[in-house]
Amino acid sequence: MNADFTAEELAFETEVREFLSAEFPANYQAKVNANIRLSKEELVNWQKILYRKGWAAPNWPQEYGGPGWSATQKYIFATEMGLIGAPEPVPFGMKMVAPVIMAYGSDEQKQRFLPDILESNVWWCQGYSEPNSGSDLASLKMSAVRDGDEYVVNGSKTWNTYGQYADWIFCLVRTDNTVKKQEGISFLLINMHSPGISLKPIVLLDGHPEVNEIFFDEVRVPANNLIGEENMGWTYAKVLLTHERTNISGVPRGKRRLRALKRIASKTDDGFGGNMMENSAFKNKLAEIEIELLALEYVELRTLAALTVGKAPGPESSILKIVGTELAQQMDELFVELAGYHCLPFVPEQFEDGFQGDPIGPGTAAASALVYFNNRKLSIFGGSNEIQRNIISKAVLGL
Amino acid sequence: MDFSYTDEQKMLQESVQKFVQKSYDFNTRNKIIASESGYSKDNWQLFAELGWLTVPFSEADGGFGGSAVDLILMMDEFGKAMLVEPFVPTAVLSGGLIAALGSDEQKSELIAPLMEGGVQLAFAYAEPGSRYNLASVATSAKVEGDTVTITGCKIAVLNGSNARKLLVVARESGDRNDRDGISIFMVDADVEGVSIQAYPNIDGKMSARVTFDAVKVAVTARLGAAGAAIGALETVIDRATVAVSAEAVGALEALLQKTVEYSKIRKQFGTAIGTFQALQHRMVDMFIECQMARSIVNRAAMKLDGGEDELEKARAVAAAKSRVGKAIRKVSQEAIQIHGGIGMTAELDVGQLFKCVTAIAMMFGNSDHHTARFGAL
Question: Chain B closest CA to A2's CA: distance in Å?
């Protein structure tokens, strides 16, 4: 039993580290460190830098332009990206719709969509949730009615992250009302520039319109945008949900944030002449978080080790989302606690690109509450943590 | 990277599993606990024949190899079966100290007989006021010529009433909490001035309170150099800490499994209680705790087996015991709760597993102790 990388893997780790240190733009790094959101153009530019290196889509098979990495290489790449805080690929195209197109799309659809996803020429968003379909996703109502060579789509989708940037949306739509709810759902790709689509931004607790509600009013969609067979969409979507079971723990990002917590704590007055690293209550919380990270890292490595010897991920992999998100949220709390009074100012614009005013500090303290608010989403999205527990209960414990 | 066991390790694991299935059911265990010595001498002899007692020792000392991964895979199975035989006090603690500090003569006198099953040992380190600080030693050792006089009181001496020899931590010099000045002496259990008050622990294992009233031993009974035992003491305790953490992981997984099984057959309101989401999610959380605990114990064992960085090893052990302590509370309490009234009864194994892991939670320092230690290292 060992957790060591091979010499080749270590060499790869060095290659990735050196590439990222040379190619991740310094001004982006500065923004990430200062908690300033990267713009759409910056995210796309970074993605294109990765594309030119051939590393845009770590999880794609080589035949579609992926790098053909082993599970360990993917892990190393994700780890190095997380450690410096480089943004991961915007997931909607690369990680969500592309695997479905690869698995169930026609050759024509593969050629039409995949290259542009790989090159980040188009921005995708996800059309799953609806105002009345959250965790009970299969109850969705947005309808698509076949009319000749087209579907006519009516209804609305919500929580569409960065829908304001999107060129395309992949949707689950209802194509049959007469059968069991899971059996009347289809997987449809819709051009966001189609007539009849309108967007309403939703401002979240941190003051940022990160998500949207999208309305579809008699939107006509070519029938050749249907993936696979009509009424099979639920099956396809479920495959997508189980597609990526590793590199989802957020451990590297957590390590980076832990370093930040220690750095900030050592510079934060405790009010009694010392600093917060000398505050035993805070220090113990920090130690507990670090221990939790170590445990989670080894849960993930156990999963990875199983993959490298050709086994399927074991039951341990199913907890990565739950523990990873809850741990990230605990770290958010520590940033808020460290900030003290300095977490109170609500000036979200100072963490937007191009802010010209006099920032309220110190450092990123005034971002701590904003991040804390925003990250409450982590345990809600991607299948809420309660849904994850339902899945483990059924699939692992057999209940 | 490879988290699987080697063929040799799989054989060891199968050997333990086979024994437990065939010869260590719950009733048999209860009879062993009720016996005078509180463990089975026949079992102990069998462990020797199966080679289990060689596992903690290096090949140089005639052992199986002494890897921590070997150790945790055995302890894992011991934990599932709630084995009460004194493997940790005799082989891991006492054997580990003799291997670490003993002269060639001391080693040949004790290690081979130990591996053959012919000798029981106990390690007396904790004191009424020491809590988990290994350097807190009030027991005194006064050297005059070739004779050492030991006076003091030791608690939580596992296997103390069955041991032929006691390994006693005593202070030759310095103040009570100094790291320097601490030695370990081997004292025959039957010499004058040693009094042993034996009792069973909450987990069914035999323990003792041992007082030393001006006990005289030869200075040659000292293990290692005078006053310089603290390093080896910490190293050996750390190894034992990982061992009992693995024992806890085995027991916690047994608790989870038994709870899930019970929830599938126990019916209330006309349905199996395992269909209730309120209980399902709690069992999932128990599962999460087990996975986190197993992962961090594996990590600690791998760290102990690799590299020379002593600080990294100590941090890995502290992290493991801290995390396992939390898992123990959560999993064992929920197991009792979900079983309901039947979980409260002494006749069911679930309650005994609860008591076993509760004991482990305190052994060699509780969760808070190791969290603070991790933060300070």
Answer: 5
